[in-house]
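B., you asked whether I could sanity-check this one before it goes into the benchmark set. Here's the sequence:
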Amino acid sequence: MASAAAAVVVTAVVVGDGDAPSGPTVIAVPEVQVVQGVRATAGLVDHTWGLEIKLQATGLRAGERFRMWVVADDGSTREAGEFVGVAGTEITCDMSSSVLLDDAAAFRVVDASGDEVISADIPS
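And here's what the prediction gave me:
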């Protein structure tokens, strides 16, 4: 009886792995600008409701609050969220904005003083 239960569990795992949905298409941001001591990469996900920015960064001051903005083609800005820097590890943030990908020109990350620490133009 124990071997029959184990077989059922194995079957469920195999079927479950085959049914896993694929993730969203992530568009790489080719060039991300950073201040000295910071490293960052970003990817974009085009949604019907707006733009998702997948940000990975290291070197941001631990405990400091950072805010992201998306700049639209018309120069207006929309908030895309905020996060706190963490020492000694890469942070991964999924940020969101109501600006659609087709209308987005850039994103900017500023520190608590309002100084830009990460930025990138959004590929068209």
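One thing to flag: The two ends are 60 Å apart (CA to CA). Otherwise nothing jumped out at me.
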